[in-house]
Design a protein that fits this description.
about 70% helix; 3 helices; mainly alpha
């Protein structure tokens, strides 16, 4: 088993990220905001859950084989961009 952050297995981190992804499907700013138009609504509704899902995939790839670390880095970067877009659409764009 490949150990990662805090010397815990990557699969543990993937499981925690997946749980958070599922939680954010039901809880989040979309429940407290009035409906936003089109693309902004999509990002506010699904952006946070998508970010955690991408992080879970990143952790799974790291746990399977170290040769997937390059792909895992790319997926983590896409997750970071998804979160940045989520924050901008939620708090900056009106």
């Amino acid at each position: 088993m490949i150990r990662g952050f805090l010397n815990q297995p990557w699969f543990l981190w993937a499981g925690l990220a997946m749980i958070l992804s599922i939680v954010w499907v039901f809880v989040g700013p979309h429940t407290k905001m009035p409906a936003a138009p089109g693309f902004r609504y999509f990002i506010i509704r699904w952006g946070h859950a998508l970010t955690w899902l991408l992080l879970a995939v990143n952790f799974l790839l790291r746990g399977m084989n170290p040769s997937f670390n390059g792909t895992a880095n790319s997926i983590a970067a896409i997750g970071g961009l998804a979160y940045l877009l989520f924050v901008v659409m939620t708090f900056v764009v009106k």
